[in-house]
Amino acid sequence: MEFCGGKVKTEWEKKVNVPKTKKTYCKSKECKKHTLHKVTQYKKGKDSLAAQGKRRYDRKQSGYGGQTKPVFHKKAKTTKKIVLRLQCQGCKHVSQHAIKRCKHFEIGGDKKGKGTSLF
């Protein structure tokens, strides 16, 4: 258990289990109504080698002289905010929805029954 802002958090509140489909509002021009959406987790794309900042950094780093830019070390956060990618099953429109921070996240895991434990 963990004490957090006047509330005691149990172990289960840190674990998030999201269903694979969710019925929510689709704001595309075709739908504009509540439809079923497929839920996936947003992932950052691969960095492009052709981006101007990357080309500038690589040019500065080349040759003698070691590290030229400051390397950040004062990391404060231990978790990232989870971003859900919601794709409408009717019109394939994609929207994103950020949820709270959590240590453990899964999509479509086993449901926790009353008075049972998953592990």
Automatic annotation (TrEMBL):
The keyword 4Fe-4S is annotated on this UniProt entry: no
PANTHER family, sorted: 60S RIBOSOMAL PROTEIN L36A/L44
Pfam families cross-referenced by the UniProt entry: Ribosomal_L44 (PF00935)
One GO location term (cellular component): ribonucleoprotein complex
Domain of life according to the entry: Eukaryota
Name this polypeptide is given: 60S ribosomal protein L44
Region annotation (Disordered) ranges: 42-71
Keywords tagged on the record: Ribonucleoprotein, Ribosomal protein
Stored PROSITE patterns: RIBOSOMAL_L44E (PS01172)
Organism: Cinchona calisaya
Family indicated by similarity: Belongs to the eukaryotic ribosomal protein eL42 family.
